[in-house]
Structure formats: structure tokens, C-alpha cells
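Q: What residues go here?
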């Protein structure tokens, strides 16, 4: 029995059974891999979708077997009939779904958990911070845009892409520290748009890949426009503030209080639950969280920050001009 895999940031994500829908959620191609032994694979992160109670374990040589137990794995129910298993030691996740469970819900949960494990794998090779933020490349400048749920990160990403700019991420943005400073890494993931934006911009229906329905939400699943994902130096942080009471044009305000900016940036960071972890994973989670804090501090010290206030239902199409002007000013100031 073979398995499928896709590669993201050099990490091989093994999928068992080999189902192209998993890779398709990331906008990547499924690579058919046939191993020398039945039901085995080598992978940095393993994702298992189980409808019959199949299991998995890793041997001393790193080979993953699908016929041993998950008894020690953390597990919890994410929806009716959909249970998640997390094994941090071997970076493996499993979704166990009863017949009649929503496949969309199971698949979306599995994709989110694979992202979770990928972050740990990537962190092992270099300091990494993940922020609940969009990230765009505009005129050579990498712009990180933290925002709460409902701020319009995905919606604005669509509008920016339509204006000719590159989307690095629309939801979870990866920032790494390198010799030349902080860098935004591309993170392929299908874009999901709900009913609110679709009602305001019905032309988006023409670009939809397919509808989706999961965890009580409905909308459309999209692909990027085909241009390659890019790596961009972090040049600015723009906090998104969608305010339905805002009138007038979108308002971009510089933020100069370092402590306030750091507090806001850390508030958008993705942490690991180190206090609840045990053994080696406790130390690894703590190291991941320290890297997040260090990268956030460096960003506040070296990168200018702004707050962008707007009403997304009325001013979404005006955002590209505001961000383009910001990128132009960054270039003139020598920050790009």
C-alpha cells in the first residue's frame, strides 16, 4: 500500500491513505510515493485520515507504520463523530471519523493540525514565529497585517491580489530570522471567503474553486491567481482595525509607543501550550514560544508599525491605494 505526500518548506508531509484532497487544500500537488514495505512511509509530518480505526507508529529508523497504536496520543473531539489524535513526539496527526461525519469538517481539521505540526518541524531548523496575520508583498516590501477574526485578512488579500500584488499568506504568517533581518515566508493555503464578502463582491463567484461548509460556516474555496509565492523582507507591520462605525476614507496612523506595539503584536502570536506539555515537548514548546517573543521584539525595534482603520463593507476597494502609498514611502526611506 502506498501513501501520498506533498512538500512544503522542505518538509515532507505524508498522507495516508493517499488522497489528493488533502494536498489540494494547500494548493499543492500530491506526490505518489510507493515504499518497499506495505503500509510504511518516511515523512517529517504524518497525516492519517481514518474511517476504520487504523493506527500508526514510528520505528527507530524513522519509518512510519500505520498498524500500531495511538494509545499515548492526546485526543479530543472537534465535531460530532470527529476525533483528533496528536502525537507530538513523531509529529503525527490522525482524524478518526465515524460514518456520516462531515468530510469537509474532518478535512479542514486535519489541514489545521498539519499546519500545527509543520510549525514545530520548521522551528527545529531555525527560529520561527507564527502570527495570526495576513502578509503581502507590495513593491518589494513585505507587510505583516495582524488582525482579529473578522478584520478582513482574507477579504483584503483578495482585493490586493486583484490589484496586482502578491499574497504571502492570508491567515497565518511565518516570520523567520536570518542574516539580513526578518523575513516573511510564503504559506500556500486555499483562501476561504464567507457570505459577507460574497454579497458585497459577487464577482468573486467567478473565481471560486468550489463551495465549502464546515464547523457551522459556509462560503467558497478559492485558488491563488497562479503567480508564484514569494519570500519578502519584513518592512512594516500594519494592524488591521475593521470598524463599522468608521466614516471617511481608510485611515493609516503611525504607532510610536513601543510597549503598546509589542503588546499588540504578541497578542496576535501563535503560542504552544508549554504549561500543559510533558517531557521533551515541554522544553520544545517553551523554545518555540521564546522564539516568538524574540522575533516580535526584533520586529518592534527595527520595523515601523501603523494602524489601519476602515469599514470593510464600504471601503475594501480603497485599501490597495493606501498600502501602495505606504510601500512607496518605505522605499523612499530606504527600508526596502
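A:
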Amino acid at each position: 500500500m502506498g501513501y501520498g505526500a506533498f512538500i512544503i518548506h522542505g518538509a515532507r508531509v505524508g498522507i495516508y491513505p493517499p488522497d489528493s484532497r488533502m494536498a489540494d487544500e494547500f494548493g499543492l500537488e500530491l506526490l505518489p510515493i510507493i515504499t518497499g514495505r506495505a503500509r510504511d512511509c518516511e515523512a517529517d509530518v504524518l497525516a492519517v485520515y481514518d474511517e476504520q480505526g487504523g493506527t500508526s507508529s514510528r520505528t527507530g529508523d524513522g519509518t512510519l507504520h500505520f498498524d500500531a497504536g495511538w494509545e499515548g496520543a492526546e485526543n479530543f473531539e472537534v465535531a460530532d463523530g470527529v476525533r483528533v489524535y496528536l502525537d507530538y513526539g513523531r509529529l503525527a496527526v490522525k482524524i478518526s471519523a465515524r460514518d456520516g461525519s462531515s468530510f469537509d469538517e474532518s478535512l479542514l481539521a486535519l489541514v489545521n493540525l498539519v499546519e500545527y505540526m509543520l510549525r514545530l518541524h520548521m522551528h527545529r531548523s531555525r527560529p520561527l514565529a507564527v502570527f495570526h496575520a495576513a502578509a503581502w508583498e507590495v513593491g518589494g516590501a513585505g507587510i505583516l497585517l495582524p488582525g482579529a477574526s473578522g478584520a478582513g485578512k482574507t477579504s483584503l488579500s483578495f482585493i490586493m491580489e486583484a490589484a496586482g500584488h502578491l499574497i504571502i499568506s492570508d491567515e497565518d504568517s511565518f516570520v523567520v530570522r536570518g542574516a539580513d533581518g526578518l523575513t516573511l515566508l510564503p504559506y500556500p493555503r486555499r483562501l476561504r471567503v464567507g457570505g459577507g464578502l460574497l454579497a458585497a463582491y459577487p464577482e468573486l463567484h467567478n473565481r471560486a474553486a468550489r463551495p465549502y461548509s464546515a464547523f457551522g460556516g459556509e462560503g467558497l474555496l478559492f485558488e491563488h491567481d497562479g503567480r508564484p509565492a514569494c519570500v519578502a523582507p519584513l518592512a512594516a507591520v500594519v494592524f488591521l482595525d475593521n470598524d463599522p462605525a468608521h466614516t471617511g476614507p481608510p485611515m493609516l496612523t503611525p504607532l510610536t509607543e513601543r510597549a503598546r506595539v509589542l503588546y499588540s503584536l504578541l497578542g496576535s502570536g501563535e503560542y504552544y501550550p508549554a504549561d500543559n506539555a510533558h517531557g521533551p515537548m515541554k522544553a520544545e514548546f517553551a523554545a518555540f514560544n521564546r522564539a516568538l517573543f524574540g522575533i516580535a521584539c526584533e520586529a518592534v525595534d527595527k520595523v515601523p508599525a501603523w494602524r489601519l482603520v476602515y469599514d470593510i463593507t464600504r471601503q475594501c476597494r480603497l485599501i490597495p491605494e493606501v498600502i501602495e502609498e505606504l510601500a512607496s514611502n518605505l522605499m523612499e526611506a530606504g527600508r526596502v
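A: Context that may help when evaluating the design: Helices lie at 20-25, 103-123, 153-162, 195-200, 258-267, 280-302, 312-315, 319-332. DSSP finds eight helices and 21 strands in the chain.
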